[in-house]
Design goal:
187 residues, alpha+beta, Peptide Deformylase, two-stranded antiparallel ribbon, 4 helices, globular
């Protein structure tokens, strides 16, 4: 199985809102496996379908190394490794009451570019798994941040759009250079 190519900033698919996933089962499982392979090869913890050139509301996450407990389908999951990786299709994210936390983020579509992003600490997510089964997830910490980051990708929103202004200004020259390189490679 050959990993998918991760699209760099400047590829128009990254700014398009993804279409809902309509067909589930083996095609989605196979795509998710390929996305996970690409994500792991790039040493990431999440990857959205637009990042591999597919305008779909689909993303994968694997934060199994993070000790934060979570709830899946209303039941506590003490060991996140037991449910990772997760495949989330057609996710609907609800922000839960709590604090916002500022934390440095990176993105596989922005190699070498990192900056602080403020995000809420807890979310609830209604989604469909690879087989199309409706699921719910309550997450906090790194998993919540990863879900918000990947869900944004499915909406055409990028982490640089949410970066705190001082960090956005600091990385702007790198972002412009990446955009020029991407545009030059598309000619």
């Amino acid at each position: 199985m050959e990993p998918l190519e991760i699209r760099p900033y400047g590829d128009p698919v990254l700014r398009a809102k993804g279409e809902p996933v309509r067909a589930f089962g083996e095609p989605v499982r196979a795509l998710a496996d390929r996305m996970l392979a690409a994500m792991r090869a790039a040493r990431g913890i999440g990857l959205a379908a637009p990042q591999v050139g597919l305008s779909l509301q689909l993303f994968v996450v694997d934060t199994g190394h993070d000790p934060e407990p979570l709830e899946l389908d209303g039941r506590p999951v003490a060991d996140p490794r037991s449910v990772m990786p997760l495949v989330l299709a057609n996710a609907e994210v609800t922000v839960l009451p709590g604090e916002e936390e500022r934390m440095e983020e990176g993105c596989l579509s922005f190699p070498g570019i990192r900056g602080d992003v403020a995000r809420v600490e807890r979310v609830s997510v209604a989604f469909r798994d690879a087989d199309g089964q409706p699921r719910t997830l309550v997450a906090s910490g790194l998993l919540a941040r990863c879900i918000l980051h990947e869900h944004d990708h499915c909406q055409g929103v990028l982490f640089i759009d949410r970066m705190v202004p001082a960090h956005r200004l600091r990385v702007e020259p790198k972002v412009r250079r990446l955009l020029r390189e991407t545009q030059a490679s598309r000619r």
